[in-house]
User: What shape does this take?
Amino acid sequence: MTQPNRFNITIIGERINPGFKSVKTLFENEDIAGIQALAVRQAEGGAAYLDVNIGPRALNDAEFMAHVVRAIQQAVTVPLCFDFPSPQVQEICLKTYDQERAGGRLPMVNSITEARWEAMDLYRLRPFKVVVMASERMEDGVARGNKTADEIAGTAKRIARRLVREYGMTLDDIYIDMSVSAVIADTEGLNRSTIEAIGRIGADPELKGLHMMGGLTNIGQQLPPKAADGSDLKLGLENAFLTLTVPLGFDTILGTPWRDYHPLAEDNYVFAAYRHFLTQTGSNALRAVRKFYRA
Assistant: This one.
């Protein structure tokens, strides 16, 4: 059953990805009808874009990659988001994409970083919207991970300025991936830094119109399915993150359209545990994680 999107955020449907076991089987069996049905279900569930990733096969089977893109576009009219680190694969996708079939809407390229900027050369091939990750920066010719709010927000602003200045893109065409971190391994306050960076970017008048997004499923990785109060722990964490960040300007997710995304009340158990977790670092953060699923 489709759930209402009560945050009124943009959802990029994440399901056409072999990271999901059932979808991996679809690709292994070349079940095009099954892939099309999954595309339709996501579109009907409210996805504004469909993320498309067929896995490593895309690197050596361009014909199949193009076939999948055409088949999805035969089934739905929502625009597609191509999710590959390889510029060669992205080029195949962009050349195959039928913009008219998508109502004239641009495709999206996901994900570019300052260290993998060569994919932006494809912008000469055709315009597209772009997802750029703020989780790393180039410093003295070396890619370095961002850990503080200053580093994350600074990278996002530098990227946005460059895309506008050098490519003539509008801020509405730029999506900054804020890299939602798994709480189970976050001993350095990465969740806290990301939320603080979202607040800074959202409050920056120069960046008004820029989109901030993230893959929500990361946040609950390797955690038990149930919270200490018996609720859905992973969904609760996703909603806790959104409850804090949507008011700050976070407006897009890579997620599942039929998930029940909704704001949480202040006294919600998982929301309270998440706010406590955000105040902790090191071993205290690990102890705070256990509070999610242990009474």
About this structure: The chain has one domain: 10-293. Strands lie at 10-16, 49-52, 80-83, 108-112, 129-133, 136-139, 142-145, 174-177, 211-215, 250-255.
